[in-house]
Amino acid sequence: MSFSDDPAHTQTLSRPLQWGKQLMGAVTFYTQMPIPHHWPMSFEGIARFAPLVGIGIGLLLAAADWGLATVAMPLATRCALLVALWLWLTGGLHLDGAMDTADGLAVPDPARRLDVMADSRAGAFGAMIAVVVLGLKTLCLMDLETLRWVGLPLAAGWGRWGQVVAIARYPYLRAEGKGALHKAHAHPVTDWLWGFMALMGLVGIAWALAPTAGIWLLAVTVSGGLIALAVGAWLQWQLGGHTGDTYGAIVEWTEVLLLCGMVTLQQWM
Known about the structure:
The protein has 11 helices and no strands.
């Protein structure tokens, strides 16, 4: 048997190709980036790439932030446009989940919460949460001075890492839905490890480029992991499991709370 006919060798060569297809599937699923539909992609097991997609979104936002600052756009306007771009890049996918989750948790009867969350119409609590989330993001970006270019990808990356942990760790409460695909193809250890390594790589690069901000980076890294885990655990405690909506809520609330933590930590460092 020739080396090229070796099944183990063939599997080794095909694995990066499969990862590439999954990455393209993740970009298509989680964003509105214009990926050509004829490109090969797979949607099975794409959750592991969610933190990497988040880092990419954050870097795009950081590039836009730099460009708008270069043309001397006022800070408040710049930050509002960044949040609008953030919302457009994700298609509102995660914010919609946060809104539905808020409507569900507002119902006193736990037995009715999932039914309320399944209703596509936004309720009063969902609308209020959308205002709170978008408003807090805008205000935090106005206050964020330390390493804005790395703060954005860290917030977006940790938010999606928390989502991956929830997919791997907690039960899924619906028989079908977008989240069911993620749960069906979850790998409990390797999925969250991929995102964790990507985030640690980003922190390492930032530390090398800005060693004087090392303590801030360390504090933000620890805070990001703890916030991501805490949000997922709290929703699990409230609902007894997760749905696609709560996965989106994890992303949004981790992003918001970590941004709040970043601007607070920069006052201490």
